[in-house]
Amino acid sequence: MIDYNYPLAGLRGAEYNPRHISQEKLKKLWESIRRFGIIKPIICKQDGLIVAGHQRTKALRANGVTHAPVYVLPGDTTEADEIQFNLLHNGADLDCPDGDCWIIDEIKLGWNQVSNIRANWKASQQGVRINIHHLIEKFGPWGASVASLDGEIIHCNNYAMTCIKAGYPLLVYVVETERKAEFKDYLSEIYGKFHYGQLEKKTYMQTLAQPNRGADVPGTIPRESMLYEEHVYPWLKTNPKARGIDFGSGRGHNASLARSRGFNVLDVELFRRVVGSNAIDQVWVHRAISQMCHSLAKHGQFDFVVCEAVINSVDSPEAETAVATMIGALCKIGGTVFYSGRALRNVNADMRKGSKLTKMGGPGRMEFIDDYGYSGYFRDSDWFYQKWHTYEQRMALGPLVGLTPKEKEVGEYWRCWGEKELHAPWAMVEKAIEFEFELPWPCGQRINRSEMVKAALRPFWPQDAQSFPPNHAQWWPDPMPIDPGDKDLVGFF
To answer: Confidence class of residue 339 from pLDDT cuts 50, 70 and 90?
Structure first.
């Protein structure tokens, strides 16, 4: 239920809140509140834990406000519930451009509850409304919209449509019609950005990104790998005796299929899952690392290296840099590296349309992106991350790999490939090996194979491998952020 005069002293912030706000934006948020009032309620648990509205609470307290409208969630909630709410309720701020929402009921300035609206019920952003409906069904009508006195809903029209469609009364804050444009200007501001750097990282959770390609799922039709089909296999037709490795091979379908076609491909996956389980197959992982090291020791670096969709399933800039450096280190000079990931431009376009629907995150999962292109959401009681790259970011990976990449973007995926031109300094490779092959497994274990990998690679490393671009240090540990001035590349916050 909503309490329009809830004491802010009884509220406390959640440690898992993935958003932060600059002092400049905090001042502008307060200016908005000072000029227009508190037009959206804070949302909290019954014990006062803030689930949504951390930045509003911060601005209010900083300026001496002691009471504000607060919606108290009914019943008990788990931490997973709270985190899901914290992330997904932000979809309510995505206004539908073709919603055409108008209130039919009589309204007055300030807070109102209405039951009838006129809207374009077939409008875009269905995915946003699926998320909102999921939260309303679980927590009740927790949100609010903003309308002008002439009846137009000028903010949170997705929430308004979903709330009415679900049969709940809609809470609306009504403002003067003549100030509509002024309100819209302030409401369109980004007052808090997502930032996942301070949240817990259990890197083995990234194993959940491994797709079901059909190799270990009876009765399913295998999905093709466009990286293999359009780039790796054509290259192998002209280099049929090439020796290669698939680094981060997931469940191993692509490498297994390549071997069945007669090609010489090893594969390594540091979080390979047991078939039919989320448990890590430690025996398989150790055997794969040993086979890789034996091949390196006997034959040297590989003629080609494939790394499909691993760079987008990292959980930190350090992990991204280590993967890029590692796949370059495994390839010999003159060999070819193929790697791929997911494009930020496309996920942003989907978010604007509200059409970003996936099965991985529940009903109509949406991606909320931080300044470096990471999204995070709570899955199986832990945080799971994805990295979405701009064109500039994926080009910047080229020097780490040791090549000047060619590039192709299709849908939400990008692919890069190129001939290995130079070696990174050994100190950087050593750091990447220690990062990758000492990664944590559950129950406090680690892979603990870095020394063996270093011993296998070090003899083939030139003593003078200093031809790496002199600015390489800038990519460790903090890769290129998204340019905040480029509206096509900035994620929704």
So the answer is: very high
Domain chopping of the chain, boundaries? 2-194, 203-475
pLDDT tens digits for range 306-324? 999 899 888 888 899 999 9
Cis peptide before 18 (omega within 30 of 0): no
Domain 203-475 sits in CATH 3.40.50.150: yes
Its pTM stands at: 0.73
Nearest-10 crossing angle of helices 23-36, 54-62: 80
Residue 29 φ/ψ, nearest 5 degrees: -60, -45
**Neighbouring residues of 125: CB distance < 8 A, sequence distance ≥ 6:** 94, 96, 99, 158, 353, 354, 355
At the topology level of CATH, where does 2-194 sit? 3.90.1530
- Residue 383: closest CA among 361, 366, 364, 403: 361
Pair 200, 382: CB distance under 8 Å: yes
Cross-strand partners of 229: none
Span 133-163, pLDDT tens digits: 888 888 888 888 999 999 999 988 999 999 9
The conformational region for residue 228 under phi > 0 = left, psi -120 to 50 = alpha, else beta, is alpha
